[in-house]
Amino acid sequence: MDITDPFPKHKTEVDGILTVVDRLTKFAMFLPCRYHAKAAELAEVLYAGWIRTKGYPKKIVCDRDTRFMSDFWLALIKRWGSSLKPSSARHLQTDGQTERAHQTAQVLLRTLIRPDQKDWAERLPDVELAYNSSIHLALGISPFEFEHGSPVTLPLDMITPRTVESDDHLLFLRRMQELLVKARDQMAKTQQRMRQQANRQRLPCPFHAGDLVWVSAAEFSLEQDVSRKLLPKWMGPWPIIEPAGDAPEGPSFTIQVPSHLPVYPVFHCSKLALYTPADHDDFSGRRTQDPPSMDGFQERHHLPATLWQQAN
Fold first, then answer.
1. Phi then psi dihedrals of residue 129, to 5 deg
2. CA distances from 14 to 7, 36, 45, 233 (A)
3. Who contacts 123 (Cβ-Cβ below 8 Å, separation ≥6)?
4. Predicted local confidence at residue 173, as pLDDT
5. To pair with 255 at 20 to 30 A between CA atoms, which of 121, 149, 182, 230?
6. Which band of pLDDT confidence, cut at 50, 70 and 90, is reported for residue 193?
């Protein structure tokens, strides 16, 4: 699950969408919410929209939003009997199906809403129906048919009724089993194809604990008046403390970021670059490249002594 970027504020005060996607059936719900809602309010939205009809999930994949990582949310997940699986730090592919559902929902909304965009919340049920009744590439059938055993009945179907099939429960159970086998087979083929495509572009992770690495400057929040375009593309170098996760080679690493930088110190390996010192450093006195802190504070030892004396 994930929350989209803010939409125009609706008359009901909602300005965001909590998207929830079932990992097996790909059935999606697009639940209107307040984008900056607190953890308790988001839990109520999830309960009223998803859990009320689907039950408690076994696992929840989400990003590392502070609300989802809060003590309240972690305690609630435990009480539900569920487990939380946060995505890799700043690596949204972990929850890729939700991101794709986001994108599809936004495309559908653009075609349905009025020019003033004030009715986007009213159109979410239409978007949800269109999404779940469409053939899903990973399944070969629609999420609605996978979940309910038959395709959704649309108004046109009432005009031209389908051929009535036997209501024998054995035929129904056999059809459900066939759908499950077909969907799982299609999902396995799709995942294998996506894995092969990703592996063609992915190199072995070259980082180890103790290595000095550069960190992408895009991972740091900046002051309001600081232009990212005028900053270096990489910050550091800083040492790797340890791999983050079960795999020794990554895919994320804990970096020893200076304490004055308010950033979560775990970065995906795609955001890192190995530091290679020059054979003959003609600039031995140069310092590390630290981004400006959120409050403009820089530690004293990061300033040349002459500038520190002038400032005092």
1. -65, -45
2. 8, 10, 11, 36
3. 109, 112, 113
4. 65
5. 230
6. low
Q: Cα 281 from chain centroid?
A: 41
- Does residue 129 contact residue 152 with C-beta atoms inside 8 Å? yes
The string over 259-274, giving b where at least 16 C-beta atoms fall within 10 Å of a residue's C-beta and e elsewhere, is eebebebbbbbbbbbe
Cis peptide before 232 (omega within 30 of 0): no
- In order of 179, 196, 269, the CA distances from 249 in angstroms are 38, 19, 9
Helix, strand, coil percentages (3-state) for the chain, rounded to 5, are: 40, 15, 45
CATH superfamily of 2-156+165-201: Ribonuclease H-like superfamily/Ribonuclease H (3.30.420.10)
Across the strands, what pairs with 253? 243, 267
Q: Are 221 and 295 in contact (CB under 8 A)?
A: no
3-class DSSP state of 276: coil
- Cα gap 188→186, rounded to integer Å: 5
All CATH 3.30.420.10 domain ranges in the chain, comma separated: 2-156+165-201
Cis peptide bond upstream of 251, omega within 30? yes
Contact of 267 with 89, CB cutoff 8 Å: yes
Distance of CA 102 to the CA centre of its chain: 10
The predicted-structure confidence for 74-129, as pLDDT tens digits, reads as follows 999 999 999 988 876 555 555 567 888 888 888 888 888 888 888 899 989 888 88
